[in-house]
Amino acid sequence: MTNALEIKNVNKKYSDFELRNVKFTLPKGMIMGLIGSNGAGKTTIIKSILNIINYTGNIKIFDLDIKEKEDEIKEEIGVVLDDMFFPEILTPNDIDNSMKYIFKNWDSKLFNSYLTKFSLNINNPIKTFSKGMRKKLEIATALSHHPKLLILDEPTSGLDPVVRSEILDIFRDFIQNDECSILFSTHITTDLEKIADYITFINDGQIVFTKTCDELLNQYGIVKCMEKEFQKIDKKDYLKYQKNKYDYEILIENKKDFKKKYSIEVIDKITLDDLMVLMIKGEK
Amino acid sequence: MEIIISNSNGIPIYEQIKNQLKNKILNNELKEGELLPSIRSLARDLKCSVITTKNAYEELEKEGFVITVPAKGIYVATINKDLVKERQLTKIEELLKEVLILAKTCDIKQKDIIEILEILSKEDIND
User: Do B51 and A30 touch (CB under 8 A)?
Assistant: First the structure.
């Protein structure tokens, strides 16, 4: 088995939105970030992977079909969804007690060690927890049955930089075992720049690309120039452009090749944010 | 061992890791046969992705600076330092030739080039 997750031709139709031929692969031992604007389909993909919603197509986790082997697979995956799914009157202790009966591999000791690490009191009800504490509790719960794949929907949104960096450190520890992989969707693309191996970009229900984060950050670039320079650039040498009041911003796929061909001064490094904005808002 | 990664100098992170490890091997800070951190632990501690450290190690392996022993780890390879130095000298020669050609085209004196070199070597060279 070389892939943690394989998605092929997944389609899902809602009245006003559809996923079309979604296809990507997450190799084992790697971290993939799922990016896209609000409503692009990130959560729908995650829900399909978890078999929470109906879809057509083929999704395999650890080479097994989720529709056929759901119970077996769910023993091996840890999930954090965007909305908290624990009743507010429960305490972490109650969660510990119920998870024992849900997961064969539930590890109370590990769960408690995460609670200590996150300074969460085991006997306080969830309703007394702040948003960050709730997220930490969800992540602790997702990790405490020794999963091999973490699937996380916006695990770091709404959290302060310190908590986010703690959570990223936990993800880093998690993939020290090369059997373990992570798929997470987020809007906080700076988190991905620090941790993701692959980026899958989804727009309007379709996959735009899956690429290594290194390739995107090292090779892609933004050219900034004036109109008369822009006019000289061959259409096939850029992906998208945006006309601003004082300049043109042009998204290019390979800074080195571009520099060889054109003598334009300003070629900036991109961030994933720039990339998203230009891919979605830019013209061709 | 210390490795310093800059996020703003424009050099890809894998290249920064590669260059710094290479320097440490060449100046004997990392010794022949020494076990290097694993791809995953290096990624964790440098706060970068696994693919980044993997690329760095792959390039170092291609250039003969490290060897991977399956199921054991990555070690500093036995390298012939004289040979490496020789190669670097050849490369410097080539680059300097280019400089001279460029200088000739716009009539810049040799003395000016040497002066530039002196100024540059006084500044911090960030690899």
Answer: yes
pLDDT tens sequence across A81-128: 877 778 899 999 999 999 999 999 999 999 999 999 889 999 999 999
CA distance B3 to A174: 23
Closest chain A residue to B14, measured at CA? A214
Angle made by CA atoms A128, A142, A25, in degrees to the nearest 5: 140
Query: Are A175 and B14 in contact (CB < 8 Å)?
Result: no
pTM over the 0.90 mark: no
CA-wise closest residue to A91 among A114, A123, A138: A123
Identify from B42, B50, B54, B57 which residue to disrupt to test chain A contact, counting A C-beta atoms within 10 A and taking the largest count: B50
Q: Which helix (H) or strand (E) holds B18?
A: helix B13-26
Domains of chain A, each with CATH number or no CATH: 3-212 (3.40.50.300), 220-281 (no CATH)
How high is the ipTM of this complex?
0.77
At residue B126 the predicted structure's pLDDT band, cuts being 50, 70 and 90, is low
- Identify all chain B residues contacting A29, using CB atoms and an 8 Å cutoff: 40, 50
Separation between Cα atoms, residue B91 and residue A106, nearest integer Å:
58
